[in-house]
Design a protein that fits this description.
mainly alpha, 33 helices, flat
Length: about 600
């Protein structure tokens, strides 16, 4: 055992010597590293090897690599990487090989190995790992996809990639993702060949070059092989979403126009009444954007023409299918295209006009959803000078969705910012507070309303009282009420309010902590009242599961110098809390 361990340690001595020679590590650090590695090696020589020992050793060596990287950057020294880093990387590879062979069913070990290979750009080792993975995990489609993509993208072997995808399909004949990646790979390979011949022969000579090529290569260049993959895929996977994804992939390749036409014909034939399929076909002209680019003004105009063509197609579909799904599809397309435009451009203004027309049509046909309305609001807010239109959209929103927090909050926020007439704004605020469904999310609406009442010296306590009647927000409003009372009323008023608030059901100890924080700011805090409240709360049932209240009580007494009282609280807490909570209390108590 010792001989094997020392042999493995000696394999890393060259790297250790270089680290010390070039002052990346000190001699003391080298000694510690060697001792640590020796300890791990002995653990791996045991008869009963543990997975955790492998993982810890790998993590340790990985951290050494990270430290070497930091030290190299600091010293600006980058020589002898092959003798230092790569020797450690090789050791990690051997450890991964050992642990994966002993525990082959643990997928996390394999994925960690893959991540390590990718981080160090070890394509050959990654290929070996993926080859082993598809043997161990043939039932996992993602493994076949990863292996097939690696063979094409990293190894540049289309034959190996094709073989892996076909083998994966023999295990998973109806898996849409494997078919899709196989289809994409064939199109990428065809594009690669076309680009290569175009560079060698020129674009104009590409067609004449076909006469000198064999039929198999010509079929690949014309996407015939990809077409064959598509035909087999749609027979194996009868799913319209998969069919749409095949169309989207093919649309990325300009030379595959015949294939796109075939896919579109099949979609019309198989799904003549499907809204999602027809919408995908309607927006197909936008695939040409990939070939055009958007650097010049002329390109922007061409793209706008494509967008308007898609909008016209969707408008035709909308007249045929007046459904919420179709309206949402139309709305999403216009919104995405508008967001892709630079702010203030002519193209953006054109799309904004289209969007506003769409929203008005949706409202007239009762198909306007809340999400569409919110996007409409954001759109009109881009034109702050058009206040009448903004007010109209807001009024329409609260009329259609009176219980919506987002609509009401946006409306109140805008009216406050634009200094709407006080009586009207007060009425709108009250209506919004009454209509919005109670939830934690609507607290911002209450905070905005309270702040407006405070700023305008209005009857803010009326709003506080309204909030206390709302069970979802009672606690948050109570805290705001106490803080406002501290700023605008007296100490006695704060205590009177607290005594009233503690009678409400469902309120936590937060309001008690709040009144303590408020009271200690006064010159003469009411110590006896605070102690009385601590005693009342700690005598209740809720104190049996609340460590914080006991810690706060002990801390408060200690701050007063009451050692006897502090010890009494300690005794009560340890006898009231259960074993686990008592340990937590003692831990926090000791840090006071």
């Amino acid at each position: 055992m010792a001989e094997r361990v020392h042999l493995r340690i000696e394999d890393g001595l060259r790297a250790s010597e270089l680290l010390q020679t070039y002052e990346l590590f000190t001699s003391k650090e080298i000694s510690r590293v060697l001792l640590k590695r020796q300890s791990y090696e002995y653990k791996l020589e045991k008869t009963q090897k543990r997975k955790r020992d492998y993982i810890n050793y790998i993590d340790y060596l990985n951290n050494i690599l990270k430290l070497i990287t930091i030290r190299r950057k600091k010293a600006n020294y980058y020589d002898h990487q092959e003798d230092i880093e790569f020797s450690i990387v090789g050791k990690i590879h051997s450890l991964f090989t050992g642990v994966c062979s002993r525990y082959p069913s643990d997928l996390s070990l394999w994925t960690t190995n893959i991540d390590f290979c990718l981080s160090w750009k070890k394509s050959i080792q990654l290929g070996k790992v993926l080859t082993s993975m598809v043997q161990v995990f043939p039932s996992k489609p993602e493994v076949w996809i990863l292996a097939g993509k690696h063979e094409y993208e990293a190894i540049h072997s289309v034959d190996s990639s094709r073989r892996i995808f076909l083998r994966g399909l023999s295990f998973h004949p109806a898996n849409s993702q494997i078919w899709l990646e196989y289809f994409r790979m064939e199109l990428l390979f065809a594009e690669k060949l076309r680009n290569r011949y175009a560079v060698l022969q020129g674009d104009n000579a590409l067609q004449s070059l076909y006469d000198s090529l064999d039929s198999a290569t010509v079929n690949i260049l014309n996407a015939k092989l990809a077409t064959a993959v598509y035909q087999q895929a749609v027979c194996a996977v009868t799913n319209q979403q998969f069919h749409i994804e095949m169309l989207n992939v093919s649309s990325l390749f300009e030379f595959a126009s015949d294939l796109q036409l075939e896919i579109v014909k099949d979609l019309y034939r198989f799904y003549p009444e499907s809204e999602s399929v027809l919408a995908a076909i309607a927006t197909l002209p936008m695939s040409k954007e990939t070939y055009i680019g958007n650097e010049s003004a002329e390109a922007g105009y061409v793209i706008l023409k494509l967008e308007l063509e898609c909008i016209e197609n969707l408008d035709v579909l909308l007249k045929r299918f007046n459904t919420e799904a179709m309206w949402q599809c139309f709305h999403s397309f216009v919104l995405n295209r508008m967001n892709s435009r630079s702010s203030g451009s002519q193209e953006e203004r054109t799309l904004i006009a289209v969007a506003i027309s769409l929203y008005n049509s949706a409202q007239q046909t009762s198909m306007l959803t809340e999400s569409m309305l919110l996007d409409w609001i954001r759109l009109v807010l881009r034109q702050p000078n058009n206040k009448s239109e903004i007010q109209r959209v807001f009024n329409l929103g609260v009329q259609l969705f009176p219980q919506s927090f987002d609509v009401n909050f946006a409306k109140i926020e805008w009216e406050i910012a634009n200094e709407t007439e006080k009586d009207l704004l007060r009425r709108n605020i009250c209506e919004a507070l009454d209509n919005v469904e109670p939830s934690k999310d609507c607290l911002r609406l209450w905070e905005a309303a309270i702040q407006w009442y405070i700023d305008n010296n209005d009857d803010v306590e009326k709003v506080f009282r309204m909030g206390l009647d709302n069970k979802e927000l009672a606690e948050d409003v109570s805290l705001l009420y106490l803080k406002w009372s501290n700023e605008h009323r007296s100490q006695d008023y704060c205590w009177s309010l607290y005594n009233e608030l503690k009678k409400y059901d469902g309120l936590s100890h937060k309001i008690f902590y709040c009144i303590i924080d408020i009271d200690v700011t006064y010159n003469f805090p009411k110590i006896s009242a605070i102690k009385g409240e601590f005693d009342r709360i700690t005598s209740g049932l809720s104190a049996r599961a609340d460590v914080n209240i006991w810690v706060r009580y002990a801390g408060f007494l200690r701050s007063l110098g009451d050692i006897t009282g502090t010890q009494s609280v300690h005794w009560r807490a340890t006898h009231t809390l259960n074993c686990q909570l008592s340990e937590e209390f003692v831990k926090q108590y000791s840090s006071l």
